[in-house]
Design goal:
mainly alpha
């Protein structure tokens, strides 16, 4: 019996991960920048707007990492399992970025709500990817 893992169709090309890698680097860079101060009328003056930014950043990371697998010949259950691992790794990455900010970036601090927004974005993106890319 031939395993699907031995087929070329089971492996997306490395170039398909370039958008996810670029997004990962952009998220990493964003961790090092100070948060803009409110200037009376800008987007950052909206209460908790940064939580939406966190959800989009980390949801985007999950989506862009799952996307290369959309047409790959992997059984649905295993593809879902892969997407779960991507989601969990992204949630851990969100916690790591908060700890980096707390301990290594002057002027930045750990915020549990930021990490929860990271996790929410990752979970929402997982649900979208599972629905769109892990069909039978």
């Amino acid at each position: 019996m031939t395993s699907y893992k031995n087929t070329a169709a089971a492996k997306p090309g490395c170039w398909r991960f370039i958008p996810a890698a670029v997004w990962f680097v952009l998220v990493l860079i964003a961790v090092f920048f100070p948060v803009p101060e409110g200037d009376g009328g800008g987007w950052f003056d909206i209460e908790n707007f940064d939580k939406l930014i966190h959800a989009v950043m980390f949801g985007g990371l999950v989506f862009l990492t799952c996307w290369p697998y959309k047409n790959v010949a992997i059984p649905v259950g295993e593809k879902t399992n892969l997407f779960i691992r991507i989601m969990l790794a992204t949630i851990v990455w969100g916690l790591t970025t908060e700890l980096i900010q707390k301990y290594f970036i002057p002027g930045r601090q750990y915020d549990l709500l930021d990490w929860l927004a990271d996790a929410a974005g990752a979970i929402i993106a997982f649900a979208i990817c599972r629905r769109l890319f892990a069909k039978a």
